[in-house]
Design a protein that fits this description.
It is built from seven helices and no strands. With 208 residues, it is an all-alpha fold.
Length: 208
């Protein structure tokens, strides 16, 4: 007698998640459309989007600093509690400065993003050189050069670029994420339609 191998729990969980997303594809589509609209709005008013991003960043710093301070207070006997408390104080001060002076926060964020882009570009170029004989190394090199170029342009144009760069990057992220969400929703809808169309044939085959 043949026995079927049990389905791994991870596979069952993945099937359940996929089934749920197929049923709720409409919400995923709405989320994607909202993200696309927010991305287009960020492109239309990048300065306002940059200010919003700076305010959110400041709020995140404040909340994070508050949690760290609470943890440091609860673990006072620990030797590292003092250092954690100092770190929490720095987070709180930085968050307060960003919220009180959002323009300064935007300029600082732009510098950080520019440095990160340059560092990421250098790493990608180095990786492309190391894997050069392999197919696709050119894409790594192109991505590295583009990232480095954007970072240098942000630094060269700073501080003026700080007024719109964060908003543009935020808009691009929202736009790309929204398009991906919509594409995923359409794919789940098509998959659900195919499964619904196959069900009559499956039942007929079983009864035959």
């Amino acid at each position: 007698m043949l026995t079927r191998d049990p389905i791994p729990p991870d596979a069952v969980s993945a099937i359940d998640v996929t089934s749920t997303l197929q049923r709720r594809w409409g919400w995923l589509l709405v989320l994607g459309i909202v993200q696309i609209l927010c991305g287009l709005l960020a492109f239309a008013i990048p300065v306002a989007a940059s200010l919003a991003a700076a305010l959110v960043f400041g709020a995140v710093l404040l909340v994070s600093g508050g949690f760290q301070a609470a943890h440091a207070f609860r673990t006072r006997p620990w030797k590292g509690a003092v250092l954690q408390g100092l770190g929490a104080l720095l987070y709180i001060v930085a968050g307060a400065v960003v919220l009180l002076f959002p323009i300064t926060g935007i300029l600082t964020l732009t510098l950080v993003v520019a440095v990160l882009l340059i560092a990421d570009g250098v790493v990608r170029c180095a990786l492309a050189i190391r894997v050069r004989p392999l197919d696709g190394w050119g894409w790594y090199m192109a991505a590295g050069i583009a990232s480095t170029f954007v970072g240098i342009m942000l630094l060269v144009g700073w501080p003026l670029t700080g007024l719109w760069a964060i908003g543009i990057l935020l808009g691009a992220n929202l736009l790309i994420s929204g398009v991906a969400q919509c594409a995923l929703a359409v794919a789940f809808r098509a998959s659900r339609a195919r499964e619904a169309g196959d069900e009559p044939f499956t039942h007929a085959h079983r009864h035959a």
